[in-house]
Amino acid sequence: MYYRTMGRTGVEVSALGFGCMRFPTKGGDSSRIDEAQAERMLLYAIEHGVNYLDTAWPYHGGRSEPFVGNVLERHGLRDRVFLATKMPMWEVKTGADLDRIFDEQRRRLRTDYVDFYLLHSLNKENWKRVEASGALEWLQRKKEEGAIRFIGFSFHDEISEFKRYVDALGEGWDFCQIQYNYMNEHEQAGTEGLNYAAERGLGVVVMEPLLGGYLAGRIPRLEPVWAQSGRSWSPVEWALRWLWNNPKISLVLSGMSTLEQVEENVRIASTEGGAPGNLSSGDLEVIVRVREVLESSKVIPCTSCNYCQPCPHDVEIPRIFKIYNDAEIFGNVGNARGAYRWIPEGHRASDCVACGECETKCPQQIEIIDWLKKAGELLEV
């Protein structure tokens, strides 16, 4: 297993982290974890060097944290791994909620302390709750008390908001967690945000390395590109190697659902694939070509230039169009609807009042109002 330094913490974390939100389940019920199979997966990963487990309050209907805590306790593995979990800011109404939820999380995880603790899914709406509850001061206090070792946040919004949150605590932050992959260089925090955080000493944890599974499958129109690369790598290996090639990325999380996925990801992270600089210039050109082929399938010619922002009614137009295009490019409406649910109420396609201000600013002359209607019809169910 390759290990990388988590920013200013100086801690060495495995290149691959185990995302604990996609365990195998029973009967199609996400709250019913197939505990026997999931335990085998966790133990295999830890035995092969994975030392970072990422869970959260809502994962698997609240069952992920207690399951992970139980496995670690029964096998005496707590001291061999770094535990990461998150404060669900959407459930925080007052400062008292912070202590109540955190104490329950430690009980679930069967631990007195959490190694890496995040404010979960920061965006404009959740940031209001951060400010109202005094969450930043609370984080710093818990760190001083030793209940939390390192503090950070996960993020789902636009780059200007990301920089705002980083600057709010400055060197007080130890790390951040962003959605990032070779198709999302200019989405949410993106490459600009990654660099912004890393240059300020934050460790950078990457989530959604496969774009919610979109980049894992064999897409027929990409086969000629892969074949011409001269590499025998799977689409998964290409996607993970592209991330690990970047020395500013501390760790890549993968939400694995089968033992075979764990074995494949561990294998890649345990070879030179988990090291910075593992790709040649020719390999990087392959990824550029893959991106070009996929982006040529976009139905809305949005470049995410953000000239339409801010919308007078707070509609997140570029983000909505990105999700709609992904649904068309990859043919997976279910994944797109899942991504769309992360957009806060009040910022969605149906919140458009057809004022037309955005259309006067769009350099691509996109019929934004009509496309928002189509996006709402597809994604808001």
Automatic annotation (TrEMBL):
Protein name, per record: Aldo/keto reductase
Ranges of residues in domain 4Fe-4S ferredoxin-type: 342-374
GO molecular-function terms, A-Z: iron-sulfur cluster binding; metal ion binding
Alphabetized UniProt keyword annotations: Iron, Iron-sulfur, Metal-binding
Domain of life: Bacteria
Record InterPro entries: 4Fe4S_Fe-S-bd (IPR017896), 4Fe4S_Fe_S_CS (IPR017900), AKR2_Oxidoreductase (IPR053135), NAD(P)_OxRdtase_dom_sf (IPR036812), NADP_OxRdtase_dom (IPR023210)
Keyword Nucleotide-binding: no
Organism: Winmispira thermophila (strain ATCC 700085 / DSM 6578 / Z-1203) (Spirochaeta thermophila)
Pfam short name (any one): Aldo_ket_red
Keyword Transcription regulation tagged: no
